[in-house]
Amino acid sequence: MTLRGTTAVVGVAESDLGQVAPGLTPLDLAGQATVRALADAGLKKSDVDGLFTASSYYPMSGMDTAEYLGIRPKYVDGSTIGGSSFVSHLLHAAAAIDAGLISTALIVYGSTQRSDGGRLVSPSKPNPYEAPYRARHPISMYAMATARHMHQYGTTREQLADVAVAARRWAQLNPVAFARDPLTREDVLAARMISDPLTKLDCCLVTDGGGAVVLTSAERARDRPGQPVFLLGAGEATSHRSISAMPDLTVTAAAESGGRAFAMAGLGPQDVDVVELYDAFTINPVLFLEDLGFCAKGEGGEFVSEGRIAPGGELPVNTNGGGLSYCHPGMYGIFTIIEAVRQLRGECGARQVQDADVALAHGNGGVLSSQVTAIFGTESAL
């Protein structure tokens, strides 16, 4: 069974981003994004019969969001696997549409993490095996993976810094990106050390923000006013919950999720024109580019260095500026979808990748724990 080309994204939108007006709640931002995405799709709230959402603020996020939006969906999915949840929801929604359970899915998220003082709300209890070491969650976990990759493959801090610099160069082309001031490799290396070997500028932003994606059947999508972007393939995988249970600190489950997505799409890394990765830390793109097959294991550091993933480089990666420079409101995965769709629709202005027909969006959750890959294509890529 394949879902290749059976569904298409017909609407995407962000809420207000950065630091939003005082008093706004995560649901307010989810509402903003929903109204804008439905307008983009030329649809009404009453057309939505499937709701997919996740939140660290609302344990029963599906019910809270449906109540706030004033909708009564017949299918609700509130599965939470961290920041990759929304890419996972995309796969679940496509399956539900293909099965005839729903006709139109809304995938939505909102967070006011910056307005809340940067506090990451989490209902999870500390891991009793890790808590005695007083690690800074989640950065110390990513720092461990970074240190191991550096030790095992010779990856350098300079190469990691180039990831942040590339993200900033893309952000400077994005008028709604949070951080747009110039950034150099030296700036990243000289920034305050947070968890060795990661400095402050190796870490993602802390912002407010929300996003929404509207998905429907391919047949119905062709009747919408805008250009549909088809879901060609998707795959998900989870390897652990706690970093102490990660089988190999240098190999993520993206090796599995990516393989499944490419198999469904009938494509390979060489066919992808633009890549949107969950870059919570500078090590993430290095690991994911390796595990998704864009380069060999251990070659990620060299692959991202010297502007190769920056504007004008060999592979456009995180063209909106990513979580490092564009926005990162707690969970970032939905924004990889939004940017991938906009690139394929040719709506990205100064940062537009020319002649893009295939885009990859990849979500990451927890501490390199859950990985979900989605591959999109234009009509010509079907």
UniProtKB/TrEMBL annotation:
| Domain Thiolase C-terminal: start-end pairs | 235-378
Pfam families membership: Thiolase_C_1 (PF22691)
Q: List the InterPro entries hit by this protein, alphabetically.
A: Thiolase, Thiolase-like, Thiolase_C_2
GO terms for MF: acyltransferase activity, transferring groups other than amino-acyl groups
What's the protein called, per UniProt?
Thiolase
Q: Which organism is it from?
A: Saccharopolyspora hirsuta
